[in-house]
Design a protein that fits this description.
This protein has 412 residues and is α/β, with parallel strands linked by helices. It has two domains: 133 residues, Aspartate Aminotransferase, domain 1 (Alpha-Beta Complex), CATH 3.90.1150; 255 residues, Type I PLP-dependent aspartate aminotransferase-like (Major domain) (Aspartate Aminotransferase, domain 2, 3-Layer(aba) Sandwich). It contains twelve helices and 15 strands. The radius of gyration is 22 Å and the shape is globular. The chain starts with 15 loop residues before the first helix and ends in a 5-residue tail after the last helix. The structure holds pyridoxal-5'-phosphate. The site of pyridoxal-5'-phosphate has 13 residues, from α5.
């Protein structure tokens, strides 16, 4: 008899986005006219086409693959040297951050990396995860058997939840007690908050003191506008000894459908073996990548490399400023509609408090039914997300302007 992984049975049934899709489908089937004016600001997927530099690099790479002399088969599992170099140089060393080329691992997405990293971490680690949060951090730990059952609010036993509220600016403080693995995401999905240097320093100091590891998700670092905010955890002294950083080209280069990301594992990062001896994690991640992964396609890595060319960089900046322009339009629209608005200044997400007494899902239904706009209910990101909803600014400018206008028509 074969057994299944019982931990999967602990996962809460309706994952957020399927439930949103179900409600939108039911609404549009019942209201075909409203369906035609539907605008989606729910799932955080990009809408604008790939930068021209990327398109040209893809064409060139296809041509290379078409002839024997330049054809490429399997590449290095951890990424081609030229892409690892471009990343380490432009994203880190040019910003004064000490990261070597071979500390960068190229992958097909940050979502996978956030889950896969658990392969090299012990099952006994005590976890701290912010609430609300990108659901992948929690669910991958549930799948790996690192939690108990969920309670009525969806909180899993065995996780230290770090509440993110207006009182702490949606950036959690380190807990009183000891934890071993901490998930931080800045700029944040879903709240749009971005951690200051002092806030990250507090976390790095905590991690060093407790010999903990910070899993730092910087998928939205390209959206930081405030020059005082750190783009990388490695801007903080000591982070090379206590942090792994995830980055993605999904939202910077519009790569959600192309698929390319990276994880930085510094060689100086160590964790304890069962015997208590501190050992480096870099060889374990290298081993994991070379054993379970066969690399990102040559075409996609050439596309990612093009993001670092002079043209690519200015085209990425234009994409980011397009979405951040939408964020400003949406922020103003929601504020004018009398709503309390957070985020959207260093991140492409706007986090909106529902009016008193209105739950996140009630707000979702009201906004869908009245304004024909799809948003994301905050409670889907964790129990502290109740009483909020997220508006994504990944859209055309015309749609952002239209959504801002329609928010004015809402009567709660
Ligand atoms: C916080 C965060 N991390 C990671 C990802 C996933 O990125 P990728 O497309 O590289 O898998 C997302 C995507 O929405 C995200 O919001």
């Amino acid at each position: 008899m074969a057994y299944l992984n019982d931990h999967y049975l602990k996962l809460k049934a309706g994952y957020l986005f399927p439930e949103i899709a179900r409600r939108v489908r039911a609404f549009t089937e019942a209201n075909p006219d409203a369906a035609r004016r539907l605008i989606r600001c729910g799932i955080g997927d990009v809408t604008e086409p790939l930068p021209q530099a990327v398109v040209q690099a893809l064409h060139r790479a296809v041509d290379e693959m078409a002839i024997r002399e330049s054809f490429k088969g399997y590449g290095p599992e951890q990424g081609y040297d030229w892409l690892r170099h471009a990343i380490a140089q432009h994203d880190f060393r040019d910003r004064g951050i000490d990261i070597a080329d071979d500390e960068v691992f190229v992958s097909d997405g940050s979502k996978c990396d956030c889950g896969n990293i658990l392969d090299i971490l012990g099952h006994q680690n005590r976890l701290a995860i912010s609430d609300p949060v990108y659901p992948v951090y929690v669910d991958t730990n549930v799948m790996a058997g690192h939690t108990g059952e969920a309670d009525a609010h969806g909180a899993y036993a065995g996780i230290t939840y770090l509440p993110c509220t207006p009182a702490n600016g949606f950036i959690p403080e380190p807990p009183q007690g000891a934890v071993d693995v901490i998930y931080l995401c800045s700029p944040n999905n879903p709240t749009g908050a971005a951690a200051s240097r002092a806030q990250l320093e507090a976390w790095v100091n905590y991690a060093l003191q407790h010999r903990a590891i910070i899993l730092f998700d910087a998928a939205y670092e390209a959206y930081i506008q405030d020059p005082s905010l750190p783009h990388s955890i490695y801007e903080i002294p000591g982070a090379r000894e206590c942090a792994i950083e995830f980055r993605s080209f999904s939202k910077s280069g519009g790569f959600t459908g192309v698929r390319c990301a990276l994880t930085v594992v510094p060689k100086s990062l160590r964790a304890a073996g069962a015997d208590g001896e501190m050992r480096p994690l870099h060889p374990l991640w290298l081993r994991r990548m070379t054993t379970k992964f066969n690399g990102v396609s040559y075409l996609v890595q050439r596309a990612a490399e093009a993001l670092y060319s002079a043209d690519g960089r200015s085209q990425v900046a234009a994409l980011v400023s397009h979405y951040m322009g939408n964020a400003q339009v949406l922020r103003e629209g929601a504020t004018q509609a009398g709503l309390k608005v957070y985020g959207g200044t260093n991140a492409p997400y706007i986090w909106v408090a529902t009016p008193p007494g209105v739950t996140s899902w009630a707000a979702f239904d009201r906004i869908l039914g009245t304004a024909n706009v799809v948003i994301t209910p905050g409670s889907g990101f964790g129990s502290m997300g109740e009483g909020y909803f997220r508006i994504s600014s990944f859209n055309s400018r015309a749609n952002a302007v239209e959504v801002a206008a329609r928010l004015q028509s809402l009567r709660w």
